[in-house]
Amino acid sequence: MKLLLKNTINGLIPMYDDDFNEKKKLKLFETYTAEVRVARNIDFHRKYFALLNIGWEYMNDKQVAFYNNSKYGFRKSVQIAAGACEKVWSIKRQEWVEDSISISFDKMDEIEFRELYTNVRNVIFSLIEGNVSEEEFINNLADF
Questions:
Q1: 14: number of CA atoms within 13 Å, CB side?
Q2: Counting Cβ atoms within 10 Å, is residue 93 exposed (0-12), middle (13-18) or buried (19+)?
Q3: Which among 23, 40, 90, 117 has the fewest CB atoms less than 10 Å away?
């Protein structure tokens, strides 16, 4: 069970309804162990996916076809180009290939995620540069 908690003078309190519902499952006066970490910014996480969606929307038909009409393939490709990848052995191709790494909250802290965001934004803009001005692209991101 994972809970998003806020530390207050009165103790740790659940941040959202889902967290509160999970906390209610814990037995009163029972002893539990927990690992405490600073949570990543969920709003910034959502902004990252908005960035990917905006980038996808600015792609021309030829570019979309190149990614086999797959937003998921596009996301993985820009993450790899942004450096968020690791080498894995492809048994089928008999060579080392790059694969995108997980951006889950458990796998990447806030600082790493902000760096990824900036690098992905730069990669996306380099792909759509002829389709939209940098000013328009940045202005659309500011809405999130």
A1: 14
A2: exposed
A3: 90
The predicted structure's pLDDT at residue 59: 94
Distance, first Cα to last Cα, the chain:
30
The rounded distance, in Å, linking the Cα atoms of 63 and 39 is 36
- Which amino acid, residue 22? E
Residue of 121, 126, 122 whose CA lies nearest to 144? 121
| Cα–Cα dist 72/69, whole Å | 9
User: Cα separation of 95 and 3, whole Å?
Assistant: 41
Q: Residues with Cβ < 8 Å from 131, sequence gap 6 or more?
A: 58, 59, 60
User: What is the rounded CA–CA span in Å between residue 144 and residue 82?
Assistant: 21
For residue 83, CA distances in Å to 48, 77, 80, 117, 119 come to 16, 10, 5, 11, 8
At 134 the pLDDT is: 87
Give the pLDDT confidence of 83-127 residue by residue, as tens digits. Answer: 999 999 999 999 999 999 999 988 899 999 999 999 999 999 999
